[in-house]
Design brief:
Elements: H1 2-24, H2 38-45, E1 54-62, E2 70-80, E3 84-85, H3 90-99, H4 104-107, E4 123-131, E5 134-142, H5 145-149
Antiparallel strand pairs: 1-2, 1-4, 2-3, 4-5
Length: 158
């Protein structure tokens, strides 16, 4: 309670001081005091460089496409304004996406000298969200887990 009453006393003292100062000052200035420029205030409220958001939800599932597969694993990946998320290699995945300008097909290309069986055991990967301000809805089906491991994708390694 002591702090509340002290606050009231301070407020009252400031208000009375303002009234006394206003009553004793008989000569008023002809020009009003310059107000802070609105543009200067707006600059301090907003960052000087704006960025496009990049935030994705990545999934891996067993099946031929996103509609017939169940999601086995899912992670989040945010690359702008700061690399964060539940992806195990956030910085590596963001760097890979920046290097290919968000072209997910380039991230799932197979490494050279890859040898896998030709079994059909499909794995589907998806990306949903926003990349550099543009809506993304991506889906790719690997023929089997070996093909997925043989891809160059840091993005879908989780």
């Amino acid at each position: 309670m002591r702090y509340i009453t002290g606050g009231f006393a301070l407020g009252a003292a400031l208000a009375l001081g303002g009234l006394v100062a206003a009553g004793t000052s008989t000569a008023a200035s002809a020009a009003p005091a310059p107000a802070a420029a609105p543009a200067a205030q707006a600059q301090s409220l907003f960052p000087t460089s704006l960025f496009a958001p990049s935030s994705l939800v990545l999934t891996i599932g067993q099946g031929e496409d996103r509609d017939s597969s169940g999601v086995q694993r899912a992670v989040t990946l945010t690359c702008m304004p700061k690399a964060t998320g539940t992806h195990p290699d956030v910085k590596g995945a963001c760097e890979q996406l920046r290097a290919v300008d968000g072209d997910f097909d380039k991230t799932v290309a197979l490494k050279a000298d890859t040898f896998c069986t030709k079994e059909w055991n499909p794995i589907v990967v998806t990306a949903e969200g926003v990349w550099q301000g543009k809506r993304v809805s991506y889906e790719h089906t690997f023929a089997n887990p070996c093909m997925k491991r043989a891809s160059q994708s840091t993005v879908f390694e989780f």
